[in-house]
Specification:
- The complex is a heterodimer of chains A (about 290) and B (about 170).
- Chain A has about 290 residues and is an alpha+beta fold.
- Chain A contains twelve helices and 14 strands.
- Chain A is about 35% helix and about 25% strand.
- In chain A, the strands form four sheets. Chain A has a five-stranded antiparallel β-sheet with strand order 4-5-10-6-7.
- Chain B is of the alpha+beta class and about 170 residues long.
- Chain B is built from five helices and five strands.
- In chain B, strands 2-1-5-3-4 form a five-stranded mixed β-sheet, sandwiched between helices.
- The longest helix of chain B has 14 residues.
- Chain B is globular, with a radius of gyration of 16 Å.
- The chains are: A alpha+beta (about 290), B alpha+beta (about 170).
- At the A-B interface, helix 2 and helix 6 of A face strand 4 and helix 3 of B.
Chain lengths: ~290, ~170
């Protein structure tokens, strides 16, 4: 179907974009449009004004600085997925990006867009929560840095204010002795996650788990950080039994709803399966 | 209404569009390039796939105004006169279509895939065209066609001039 009529604004700077958001009624940011445009076509949302970030230079970049990966909010999923640096330094993130949607979606969809859209079954939100990423946000009067863990408030709801723009995602480089993975159960091609697991495991020289991070997608109104499951692993030498115990704990921490992707019971069971697999994959990748 | 200027299949085009005019409708209704198809509402089926500035995109998820100044390849740009593109030949020879509705999108998704992976495995082919849905074929012959197209386009083979039996429209 055709969206309702609206005004399209194509600012050339972040300041201009912020002014437009502030001064126009019922305005929404347009990034890659892979979530927003289908919603507008179904007329589930009909903003009167779209502020297209696509013509603003300098919002799409990936660089490493002082132990962090800095990724511009308009960087596409394919750019993140195929970046040798991100793959080497934070496999969890590049793998999550590579499993989003399909090739066409990944060519337009952006890391900032998917984070601000905050679909509970989104892959990147779970990954950035697991990775303790920081989100740089620009407003007209101030810039803020919001921890990913504090950003996702509810289904499709974040702490981003109506007149703010996410400009950068800052992800810590995985420390030595780490392995990371992102695994996803979907209904087939081009889907969001029925269950998604973002994992990072860090081992010390004795092979004990120095740190463990687990982010779950699709099993709650927001991504879930499975801290109790992480605590099961921390300080211990990983074994099949230990990993199974952590997976069980992660499943108990999840809060899935029954929907077209599966029953709550099924999803809770799949959390167990996929946490086990994600932890094993992370351990296999430790270096 | 605004004027939109862009390059499609190497030619300059100009047309008018409202902000809400999706690129697919602009190509079809305003510019008469009806090779790009509309298969669904929700950006899933991929029948509307075009190559925009070198990247495969679903044209129904973009507004025409966003494509101002871009370079686009549509299915009409694959054949050169009556000479089919190797991908089109392969789909023809291996019966990689039935009703043909998904085919323009499939051809361009294949074009995009083979530029990134000139010799894809079956798994890579299935993943590479996973943004394109086909209700007729069950994908088996499509996968065969893509594999054959990769073979035709491999640098080891000398390009052969092949003419289609059907006359160009």
């Amino acid at each position: 179907m055709i969206p309702r009529p609206f005004e399209l604004h194509s600012p050339s700077t972040v300041s201009e974009a912020l002014s437009l958001l502030k001064n126009s009624k019922d305005s929404k940011v347009l990034a890659g449009g892979q979530s927003l445009v289908p919603l507008m076509k179904l007329r589930l949302v009909s903003p009167a004004n779209l502020v297209d970030l696509g013509k603003i230079p300098g919002l799409s970049y990936m660089r490493e600085e002082k132990g962090h990966l800095l990724i511009g909010s308009m960087t596409t999923h394919n750019e993140v997925a195929t970046s040798p640096t991100i793959d080497r330094k934070c496999r969890t993130l590049s793998e999550a990006a590579s499993l989003i949607g399909d090739q066409q979606v990944r060519n337009r969809g952006t890391i900032g867009g998917t984070i601000c859209h905050a679909d509970p079954a989104g892959d990147i939100p779970a990954a950035v929560v697991a990775l303790d990423a920081e989100l740089k946000v620009a407003g007209r009067r101030q810039r803020r840095v919001i921890k990913a863990r504090d950003f996702f408030e509810d289904v499709l709801t974040t702490s981003l204010r109506r007149d703010e723009i996410l400009t950068e995602v800052k992800v810590p480089v995985l420390p030595p002795g780490s392995g990371g993975a992102y695994l996803k159960l979907g209904r087939g091609a081009s889907d969001l996650a029925t269950v998604g697991v973002a994992a990072v495991i860090t081992l010390d020289r004795a092979g004990r788990c120095r740190d463990a991070r687990l982010g779950l997608a699709g099993v709650g109104p927001t991504p879930i950080r499975a801290s109790r499951a992480e605590d099961v692993l921390k300080g211990q030498t990983p074994s099949d039994d230990l990993v199974a115990k952590a997976a069980e704990e992660a499943s108990e921490s999840s809060n899935p709803s029954s929907d077209i992707r599966g029953s709550a019971e099924y999803k809770r069971e799949m959390v167990k399966v996929y946490v086990k697999r994600a932890v094993r994959q992370s351990l296999a990748r430790v270096r | 209404m605004k004027q939109v200027n862009l390059t499609i299949n190497g030619q300059k085009y100009s047309g008018r569009a409202e902000p809400r005019t999706l690129l697919t409708y602009f190509l079809r209704d305003e510019l008469g390039l009806t090779g790009t198809h509309i298969g669904c509402v929700v950006g899933k089926c991929g029948a509307c796939t075009v190559i925009l500035n070198g990247k495969a995109v679903k044209s129904c998820t973009l507004f025409a105004l966003q494509a101002e100044g871009s370079e686009i390849l549509t299915v009409e740009g694959l054949a050169k006169g009556s000479q089919l593109h190797p991908i089109q030949e392969a789909f023809w020879e291996h019966h990689g279509l039935q009703c043909g509705y998904c085919t323009p999108g499939m051809l361009l998704a294949t074009y995009d895939l083979l530029r990134r992976k000139p010799n894809p495995s079956e798994a890579e082919i299935r993943e590479g065209i996973s943004g394109n849905l086909c209700m007729c074929t069950g994908y088996v012959n499509i996968v065969k066609a893509v594999k054959a197209a990769a073979g035709k386009m491999s640098p080891a083979k000398k390009p052969k001039a092949r003419l289609s039996r059907a006359s160009a429209p």
